[in-house]
Amino acid sequence: MGAPDVHPQTVAPLLEHVVGHRMAKAALEMAVLDAELRELGQSFATWLGATRTRVPSGVSVGIQAGIPQLVDQVGEYLDQGYVRIKIKIRPGWDVEPVAALREAYGDIPLQVDANSAYTLADAATLRELDRFGLLLIEQPLYEDDLRQHAQLAEMLETPVCLDESVVSARAAADAIALGATRVINVKPGRVGGYVEARRIHDIARANGVPVWCGGMLETGIGRAANAALAALPGFTLPGDISASDRFYRRDITEPVRMVDGWIEVPDRPGLGAAPLEDVLAEVTEDVEVLRAR
Questions:
Q1: Beta bridge partners of 239
Q2: 86 catalytically annotated
Q3: Per the count of CB atoms within 10 A, which of 158, 199, 259, 293 is most buried?
Q4: Mean local confidence (pLDDT), 96-102
């Protein structure tokens, strides 16, 4: 609060002495971004350099009770218009569910997310997934093990995508240089904010590595911002930017809607979404006002 000049690009350097807490830092950066862009009358999409006015919407499906339930759940999402399906996998729940979805729905855009559930000893199982033409396999090994991800990537035809391993632009550059990833999932909250997320996009694009925007149960504020991020030219794969009703009966903003598989990129000044005052008041637990001395 005592800094003489605060802009979106200066938030991260000002907070650099605080170790970790990337999501809290991202929230502060978003507040500064929204305030500055509203003052300038500029949309977040324009500020970022977005090149599209809408982005494709994908959905993530968790581990289900059985194969029939998975097939039914995916069918419902396809009927709703989602253009890409991601399913979670783990040892014992991998080849069979993927095979069932390919049999049921053919050549739909399909990818899997392992959430670090495997080790290099499982390479033979993961190689079985190559025959299904998946978009990618996300975070198969431990998040801090770039070396073994690079080894695994050489064994698979399916592109390896890193998620939790990429916590910064520096980490993204290292992963690409080591051959540990051919795709990157960018989550602004995980990397400390949208300024860093754009740096990751720029590094990946310069190296010919596609990126896509992951989801973290955002309210309409984060979904609007993610839609603008996903409209950058390097985001060539559908992300997890789903409609508000995917998670919330009532969002804290006007609901984000999906139409025919697409989410519109907001063009209003600021981040593109604002809390509904009555809903915000209803869910607010505490208020603390900070002022510069």
A1: 57
A2: no
A3: 158
A4: 98
